[in-house]
Amino acid sequence: MTAIVAPLLAFVGHARFVQAWATCAVAAIALSHLVRQLSGWAGYVALLGALLALGAAIVWARRDRIEWNVALPISVAVLLGLSALSVVWSHYQWVTVGGVALQAGTAALGLIIAATRDLIQIVRVVGDVLRAALVLSIALEVLSGLLIDMPIVFLGIRGDLADGGPIQGVFGDQAALSLAATIAAASFAVELRTRSVTRLTGVLSLVLAGASLLFASSIVAVITAGAALAIGSLLSALRRAAPETRSIASAALLLLAVVLALTAYLSRAGVLLLINDHRELAVRLPVWREVVQYAELQSVLGWGWTGLWRTDIPPFLAIDQTFLLEQSSARNAFFDVWLQLGLVGVMALVVLLGLAFGRGWLLALRQRTIVARWPAVVLAALIGFSTVDSGVLVGFGWLLLVVCAAKTSGAVSWRSRAAVEATRR
After folding, report:
1. DSSP for 360-407?
2. DSSP state of 292
3. The predicted structure's pLDDT at residue 424
4. pLDDT of residue 72
5. Coil, strand, or helix at residue 152?
């Protein structure tokens, strides 16, 4: 038996196999809409199950090289634990069980990727997957909008490219495409700067990501890309400053962010008026108001976790019937968590995002490599995305959040410092 198992473990533990597995895992989650449309939920769940089984084998084969003390950030565990615990008070327990299983399975894939791949290897995997996905998206949009001039209904592609957009590609909607293009741009920039790809490939990839953002024609693209660009620019400026200046500037920026957040809250009536004046955000505003009404009925612990909405059960059924349009989420991660996990869940999400971004910021300032900025830029994009979409709670957004939280926790964590000190003793 050992003679059979040992070669198999050596095979699955090989660096090339792990890289191939990581590419397949990221592709499966990033292209989840495409996979589900082609194979249904049964096929998608079977694919995730196979990837998790292979991932478990990889972890076992490489167990001596994994830093177990930082493999699972506590903040991620708290949110996952709260989702699982909501089965107790959920109004739709079997749906919650399924939602928790999907959330935990995606998180497990992210943790395995983070534990077995270096940061530059993760960037390369994400870049390769998104490069192929964006090429496929643009190709199908050209086919639909310019060549055959008709929608590709089963993929949700409306064929509006000839009119300048909006386009959805293989991601299902504008918001998901905007997030993918933003993360792709950050990854392509790192690849170009580290010479992981040829200059021509890097430049064309950035043009591809920019075109995808442009034709997505979405405020989500503006917010997500703007947040990533702002943080990337600030980190570049701070890295050129003296070490003592960085600490002062970082504290000042944190104080400014708190002041702006308080100002926005105190001036929320004016903010809502501005939102109402924007066509795309104005569509979200009534949904948010309806979600808040139902969230207040179960304010502390929520109705129970589902992840993606099930519009055949309350309260999602009532919200769906109000707008006569199937809603898959609240289009805001914080409102969605409030509805499903209550204010306790909102606090857990805020802590998770805050800790991950804070650690990513410190990592980018402490390490001189361009790769070290990637988690902070990605997390900034995810935080911006959270204000206008719920994708950070499920699918590709959730996978990226777990990967970045795990990598930054491993690099900037009291547990990692304790492990180093214990090793030195």
Report:
1. HHHHHHH--SGGGGHHHHHHHHHHHHHTT-SGGGSHHHHHHHHHHHHH
2. H
3. 45
4. 79
5. strand
Collapsing DSSP states into helix, strand and coil, what is residue 406?
Answer: helix
Q: How many residues does the chain have?
A: 425
Q: In this structure, are residues 303 and 315 in contact, taking their beta carbons and an 8 Å threshold? A: yes
For residue 108, the one-letter residue type is A
Burial class (CB in 10 A: 0-12, 13-18, 19+), 201: middle
β-sheet bridge partners, residue 152: 157
Contacts of 52 (CB under 8 A, 6+ apart): 105, 108, 109
The single-letter DSSP state of residue 278 is: S
Query: Which residues 6+ apart lie within 8 Å of 258 measured at CB?
Result: none
CA dist 182 to 66, 111, 170, 229, Å? 30, 22, 15, 9
Mean per-residue pLDDT pooled into runs of 10, the chain (425 residues): 67 86 96 94 95 93 73 89 95 93 96 92 96 96 88 86 86 92 96 92 95 89 90 83 72 74 66 62 82 92 92 85 71 94 95 93 87 94 92 94 92 55 45
Q: State residue 67's pLDDT score.
A: 67
DSSP string, 41-99: HHHHHHHHHHHHHHHHHHHHHTGGGS-GGGSS-HHHHHHHHHHHHTTTT-SSHHHHHHH
CB 191 within 8 A of CB 236: no
DSSP string, 131-148: HHHHHHHHHHHHIIIIIS
What residue type is 37 in one-letter code?
A: Q
